[in-house]
């Protein structure tokens, strides 16, 4: 069975996830000052740059942990055909992804239950509401 793994950082126009953070007013003011002075185009640009710099700083820890815990790094997509092949082989999946795990919209909850033993996603899981509900007890 062949499943695709893609680059971890999305390129412009690709899927991103929205997060919310709380910052103190002094930190926020300092960010606004850097934006005003032209160092960054906006607050989001500053925050993304800061996050990427921290990820580079901790890159070795991330790589060794991903390898040790057998995570797929990037995007892992499961189609109905993939899961039907798993079912035909009498196997079950333990999905571990650092990035984005997605289950195709045409996958019925019954097929997901029959083929997915567990899901650990550090990042985001995209699946239909019905599949997420069916797998709720298996998602960690």
From TrEMBL:
Pfam families: RHH_8 (PF17723)
One GO BP: regulation of DNA-templated transcription
Superkingdom per UniProt: Bacteria
PANTHER family assigned: BLL4998 PROTEIN (PTHR36215:SF1)
The protein's name in its UniProt record: CopG family transcriptional regulator
Native organism: Aromatoleum aromaticum (strain DSM 19018 / LMG 30748 / EbN1)
């Amino acid at each position: 069975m062949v499943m695709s793994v893609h680059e971890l950082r999305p390129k412009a126009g690709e899927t991103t996830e929205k997060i919310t953070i709380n910052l103190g007013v002094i930190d926020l003011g300092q960010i606004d000052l850097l934006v005003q002075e032209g160092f960054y185009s906006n607050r989001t640009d500053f925050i993304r740059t800061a996050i990427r710099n921290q990820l580079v700083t901790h890159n070795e820890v991330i790589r060794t942990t991903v390898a040790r815990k057998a995570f797929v790094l990037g995007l892992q997509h499961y189609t109905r055909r993939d899961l039907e092949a798993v079912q035909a082989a009498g196997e079950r999946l333990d999905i571990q992804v650092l990035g984005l795990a997605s289950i195709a919209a045409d996958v019925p909850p019954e097929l997901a239950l029959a083929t997915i033993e567990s899901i650990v996603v550090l990042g985001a899981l995209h699946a239909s509401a019905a599949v997420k509900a069916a797998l709720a007890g298996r998602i960690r």
